[in-house]
Amino acid sequence: MDFKFTAEQEALRERFEEFFEEEERNAPEGWLGRWEEELEADDKWAYHKSVEKKLAQKGWLSLPWPREYGGQQLGIIEQAIFGEVRSYHRVPGVATGTQIVAPAILEYGSEEIKRQWLPGMARGEITWCQCWSEPNAGSDLASLTTRAVEDGEDYVINGQKTWTTWAHRADHLFLLARTDPDAPKHRGAHLLLE
Fold it and tell me: Is residue 161 included in any domain, yes or no?
């Protein structure tokens, strides 16, 4: 069975191509298209933020999100087209928060949390760092030992994180911590936002 894009999807793909071709030409000297580059040098970080701002103005940071949170309410196909074209041209502008935090909030967050975080993310105003990896677990999230103990409306966090990706550029962090130490290894952890 052959898959065909709709006329609207083809038109959107052309708009993405035009935009990312232009942004690829704006890349700083020596840009290789690796996400690590955005963190290493100020000129490359400025490039990332410049692209992110333009993507936000177009509403492309939040293509599949509901409109009430700053999204375009488009489908998974449109999101896939966006990701493919952006990756092909090796252009930054989409950070971990948009790719990890936003989907988690959309799926599991309360209405209050959605309204608190999503509009700012859609506008490209919030940069998150990822606090997952631990000294004795690396990126094996099932082996994490950092604990989060509920204390009223807050959590008390005890543990150690390493490789906090984007930490020196971030406004906020998202953290994975074990909230139920008695649960099986692959359960009992929560994503916490700060």
Answer: yes
